[in-house]
Write a structure and sequence with these properties.
The chain is 5% helix and 64% strand. With 129 residues, the protein is mostly beta strands. Strands 1-2-3-4-5-6-7 form a seven-stranded antiparallel β-sheet. A hairpin with a 7-residue loop joins strand 3 and strand 4.
């Protein structure tokens, strides 16, 4: 197994963009040579670094893809998301609203039985003590 991850963030006036990309690869995941897994992701965010109300707003996009190569089948799912974050106290207190769309290829749908592609809407409250 190996992984690589990179993060870039820099402030430009009141806007703070960041970009994160990564790749994970697992060979022979079940101890034999017939199961390989991989995961690739990229996400970016634009933070407005001024307090609006009592927090700082941000807009983020995310792309993820999981692949499994086993016994001639190649199940794959792809997730694309768009999120609005409102940082009240950094990661310690934030509210997020997001839409994620998950698409499974035909092999992935067959692999999970009655699998279907779907879209999720999430409202998230995060508080860390």
């Amino acid at each position: 197994m190996w992984t690589v991850d990179a993060l870039y963030e820099q402030k430009f006036g009141d806007i703070v963009p960041n970009l994160q990309v990564g790749y994970i690869s697992v060979k022979d995941a079940n101890g034999t040579s017939d199961l390989d897994l991989s995961h690739i992701y990229a996400q970016g965010q634009l933070l407005y670094d001024q307090v609006v109300g009592f927090g700082k707003p941000a807009l983020a996009v995310k792309f993820e893809q999981n692949k499994r190569k086993a016994s001639g089948t190649d199940p794959k799912n792809t997730r694309v998301g768009v999120w609005a974050h409102y940082y009240i106290k950094g990661q310690a207190a934030k509210v997020s609203l997001g839409v994620d769309s998950v698409n499974l290829n035909s092999a992935a749908k067959a692999n999970v039985g009655n699998g279907k592609s779907f879209t999720d809407v999430t409202l998230q409250f995060q508080v860390q003590f």
